[in-house]
Amino acid sequence: MQAQRDQALLALEDTVIRAQTSGVVQNQFLSIGQEVAPEKSLFNVLADGKIYIQANFNETDLAGVKPGDKVSIYPRTYLWEKSFEGVVVSHPFGVERQMRLPLMSEQVVVSENRWLQLPQRLPLLIEITNPDQNDYPLQSGMSAYVHVHD
Q1: Which one of 89, 92, 111, 144 counts the least CB within 10 Å of its CB?
Q2: 43 and 54: one domain?
Q3: Residue 47: C-alpha distances to residues 20, 25, 127 (Å)
């Protein structure tokens, strides 16, 4: 009983959410009284003051791309009338492509195409350096063309 009580106290402490930065809550899919699972993502916090996008590139297009590289961003919403400048913040360093059988060291490679291996799409995190949220607001989920400068 004491162990269950201690575990319940830990779970209660985890019901308080403390953000590491000020920002805006996005992608919240909760309602009052809804049960949630421990350790499961419930929403995102977008930090105030900076705007980031995630651009998904074919892995074959990422050779030589590194943090600090300049990019141009063309949101499809504004049909080439407005572009933004940005900088690559991070390069993907972990990819969940490999799987292993539970009791063996053999890797299982899932192939969508049995004749050739298609390149994977990997995310780059990009900070927009010239946002214009008054005249050209950006919304989560928008599509854009992104060009990494040489």
Answers
A1: 111
A2: no
A3: 9, 9, 12
Identify which of 49, 71, 48, 45 has the alpha carbon closest to the alpha carbon of residue 124.
71
Mean pLDDT of 21-29: 75
Q: Supply the range of the domain harboring residue 108.
A: 50-150
Cα–Cα dist 74/136, whole Å:
11
Whole-angstrom distance, CA of residue 124 vs CA of residue 88: 7
pTM above 0.70, yes or no: no
Contacts of 115 (CB under 8 A, 6+ apart): none
Q: In this structure, are 42 and 64 located in the same domain?
A: no
Tell me, yes or no, whether 72 and 120 share the same domain: yes
Rounded CA-CA distance 109/99 in Å is 7
* Assigned token pair, 148: 């990494």
Structure confidence by residue, pLDDT tens digits, 99-111: 555 555 555 555 5
**In the chain, how many domains are there?**
2
